[in-house]
């Protein structure tokens, strides 16, 4: 099973602005859609898309565009053991991680995106791994606290909810809707309430 894109849900009066943010600030019109919802949501929504660039300079440029478009810094970009990056809160309330595996530039910044990873915070990594395997996803990496799947254009990865919140740098408390729909080859709801829908379902719901 492949993930074709993710759809972020926001209030009806904020759809256009959110579409512009993901198109112009992050350059993701093909992989991130937006639709309206009236479902309440407060605090951390349990997931964090992770945008991985090739060069650190691309991280800096993307964060600068995001902040100019109304995003707020959660973690300032900095070097770490695993590379270079940080996190921010999009204007629609979605927490994003942004990073490069390169701590220092190995070439000029080009804007090249290496991959987009959907990080889902779950109650049980083991149980959710088994659930997604049963839906037809193939495990690419597996550790007790982290599982990554080979899921096409958008990679899927699982963390414990609290661990993901800590990694992003946000308070783990939250309630209400995840405000996320995963557009893939099947329609179902996982054990943590994340909705997966076929592309035609998203179009008709939008």
Q: What are the low-pLDDT stretches, counting only 5+ consecutive residues below 50?
A: none
Which class best fits the helix and strand makeup?
Answer: alpha/beta
Count of distinct strands: 15
Secondary-structure element sequence? EHEEEHEEEEHEEEHEEEEH
Contiguous helical run count: 5
Secondary-structure blueprint of this entry?
Layout: E1 3-10, H1 15-25, E2 32-36, E3 41-43, E4 47-53, H2 56-68, E5 72-79, E6 84-89, E7 95-100, E8 113-122, H3 125-134, E9 138-143, E10 146-150, E11 154-160, H4 161-168, E12 174-176, E13 180-184, E14 188-189, E15 195-198, H5 199-205
3D structure, described in words:
The chain has 206 residues and is an alpha/beta fold. It has five helices and 15 strands. Strands 5-6-7-4-8-11-10-9 form an eight-stranded mixed sheet. Strands 2-1-13-15-14 form a five-stranded mixed sheet. It has a two-stranded antiparallel sheet with strand order 3-12. The longest helix has 13 residues, at 56-68. The chain is globular and about 40 Å long. The mean pLDDT is 94.
In short:
The protein has five helices and 15 strands.
Protein traits:
single chain; 206 residues; alpha/beta; eight-stranded mixed β-sheet; five-stranded mixed β-sheet; 15 strands; 24% helix; globular
